[in-house]
Design brief:
Elements lengths: L1 H23 L6 H58 L10 H19 L9 H30 L3 H20 L1
């Protein structure tokens, strides 16, 4: 059980950082619920896909997952930087978040879960328990990260959205460098 929990916390960290970055920006209240649920759902689903795909798709997932995550995170982080820049001069406020943005973030943060899903048969807990733990822990950590970002954003201003964008780009670069 400990190995399954450790795996779940490890997979939840990217989603938690992205949720905190999103919490720094100005958003609708529903984002505090939607993002963690999507992140947890995608983490579990992608781990399940990795588990089911097994050896057949393993080499393909491992060959491209870091490139896809890098591209998505850099694009979304760049958009956050652009929105912060436009909002800073008072001419244009950041655009409200859309479901496509939420889905893109959920996908970008869960791609590594597909590769991790390949290892689920090696985890001492049954794979189904591990999948539930991955989803639940990601929801909890992402909720805490989002709320922490909102609190920090309220105290330090909306310019921190630029920092959130840089964090997303940094996570994308880190994923790419780690895999190359």
């Amino acid at each position: 059980m400990f190995a399954a929990m450790a795996l779940a916390f490890g997979l939840a960290m990217d989603a938690t950082a992205v949720a905190a970055a999103r919490g720094l920006a100005v958003h609708r209240a529903r984002e505090a619920v939607v993002l963690p649920l999507l992140f947890g759902g995608f983490q579990s689903a992608m781990a399940a896909l990795g588990w089911l795909a097994g050896l057949w798709l393993g080499p393909y997932i491992a060959a491209w997952d870091h490139w896809v995550a890098f591209g998505l995170l850099v694009l979304i982080g760049g958009k956050m930087l652009r929105d912060a820049w436009r909002g800073a001069d008072g001419k244009e406020a950041p655009a409200p978040a859309t479901m496509m943005l939420y889905l893109g973030l959920a996908l970008a943060t869960s791609i590594d879960a597909a590769a991790a899903g390949l290892t689920l048969p090696l985890v001492p807990a049954t794979p189904w328990i591990a999948l539930v733990l991955i989803g639940a822990i990601t929801v909890g950590c992402s909720s805490i990260g989002y709320l922490a970002g909102r609190i920090i954003g309220k105290h330090f201003g909306s310019k921190l959205e630029a920092l959130g964008g840089l964090v997303l780009i940094g996570i994308g670069i880190q994923l790419l460098v780690r895999e190359l």
